[in-house]
Amino acid sequence: MTLQELMKRRLYAVLLAAGLLAGCSGAKIYPDALPKNIHVRTETSNMRAELHIHRVDANCLTEYQGTVQLDKPSVEVGIPAGRQSLVAITFSSSSFLTGSSRSVRYDTLLTPRAGYNYDVTVSYVDRMYNVAIREIDSRKSSSREIERRSLKACSAS
Amino acid sequence: MLCCMPRNRQRLVLIAVALVLGGCGGMPKNAEEFRQFSDQRARVVGWMPGLVPKETFEVERPFREVSSTLQKKANECLNVAIQWATNMRSGVDTYKPTFVAGPTKAELHVQLRRSAVIEVGAPLDGAYRVVLDATPLAAKRTRIDLYTMSIDDNLLRRTLRGWALGDNLRCPDLTKR
User: pLDDT tens for residues A3-50?
Assistant: First the structure.
C-alpha cells in the first residue's frame, strides 16, 4: 500500500467518524412520551454507554424505537408496560488516530409490568461490564432480580 | 515496519510467526492436551511477569454453587463474536465457551477463532485460550485449577477467577484483550 493510499484511508476514517458524531449513525433519540418506569444508574470509565430500545412483536421480530444516552449517573426512561421489548446496552469507544472503533453489547428481553418500576444498574470498570435489572414493587416495598433473556428465548405466539 | 515490506515478504513473515506460535502443528487439540501443554510450559518457562500458565486455588463455596455460576456466566458473557476494524485490517474473533458438568468435576473451556490469523494445528472452533476445572473438596470448599494460554488471556483468567470466587460476576469486555 502506498503512502497516498494510506492517507486516503485515514481521511475516509476521519470523515466517517465525523459523520457518526454529526448524527448520521442511524441512531434516533428515544421519544420521551411514556411515564418513567425505568431508572438507569450508570458508572463507566472511558466508555460511552447507550440504551437502545426495540419493540418485539408477536412473531419475535424487533423494531428499533430509539436510543437514550447514558451520559449521566442517573437517567429515567419510559418503556411500554405489558408489552415485550428488547433492551440493549452498548459500551463503545473509538480512536481518531488509529481509525478503530469497538463496541460491546448486552441485551435482554423485558416485559415491564404495570405499576412496577425497574432499577437498572449499568457499569463498565476495568475492562469488565455488568448490567443488573431489578423489578421493584413500590406498594409492597419488595424487589426481585430479573434474569437475562436473550431474543433466542422469545417464542412466537 | 510491516507496511513498508513487499506483500510477499509480509506473508512469509506472518506464516513464519504462525508456525512458531503454533509450534508447527503442535497446538492442543482438546482440553486435556491444553492442560498438559500448560503444565509443561509452567515447568519449562517457570515464572515470568504477567504470565501464569497454571494457577490452583481453593474457594469457600459449595461445588454446586461454583458450577452453576460458571455455567450461567459463561452462557451470558462468553458466547460472543467480535467484529473489529482498523485503517489497515478487519476481522472477526469468535469465542466459544464449553461447559462440561459432572458430579465430581465441572470444566469450562474457552476457545477463540480469529479470522485474521492462521493458527496452524488449531481445532476447528479455535485455539484453547483458557480451561478451568472445579472439583469438590468439602461441603463448602472447592478446588480450582485454571490453565491459561498467554498473557493476552489475563482478562479471561481474572474473570473466571472472579466467577469461581463469587466476588466478581461481571462480564469481560473481550473487544479489548
Answer: 566 566 665 555 555 444 444 556 899 999 999 999 999 999 889 999
In whole angstroms, give the CA distance from residue A130 to residue A114: 26
Are the C-beta atoms of residues A58 and A14 closer than 8 Å to each other? no
pTM check: above 0.80:
no
- Cβ-in-10-Å burial (0-12, 13-18, 19+) of A120 comes to buried
Q: Which of A111, A130, A105 is nearest to A52 (CA)?
A: A105
Burial of residue A70, with CB atoms counted within 10 A of its CB: 0-12 exposed, 13-18 middle, 19 or more buried: buried
Q: Within chain A, how many helices (H) and strands (E) appear?
A: 1, 9
State which residue of chain B sits closest to A14, comparing Cα positions: B87
Distance from CA of B89 to the nearest CA of A (A): 10
Residue contact B173–A98, C-beta within 8 A: no
Distance CA B132, CA B35 (A): 9
B9 pLDDT above the threshold of 60: no
pLDDT tens, A63-107? 999 999 999 999 999 999 999 999 999 999 887 777 777 788 999
Sign of CA dihedral A20, A26, A27, A28: positive
ipTM score assigned to the predicted complex: 0.75
DSSP B81: E
**Containing H/E element for B9?**
helix B7-22
DSSP SS3 for B125: coil
Question: B24 Cβ partners below 8 Å, 6+ apart?
Answer: B120, B121
Cβ-defined contact of A128 to B85 (cutoff 8 Å) = no
State the Cα angle at A149 between B156 and B164, rounded to 5°.
30
Q: CA separation (Å) from B161 to A83, B88, B112, B146, B158?
A: 38, 35, 19, 8, 5
C-alpha cell recorded at residue A2: 502506498
Q: Which domains does chain A have, with CATH numbers?
A: 27-153 (2.60.40)
B150-177 pLDDT, tens digit per residue, is 889 999 999 999 999 999 999 999 987 6
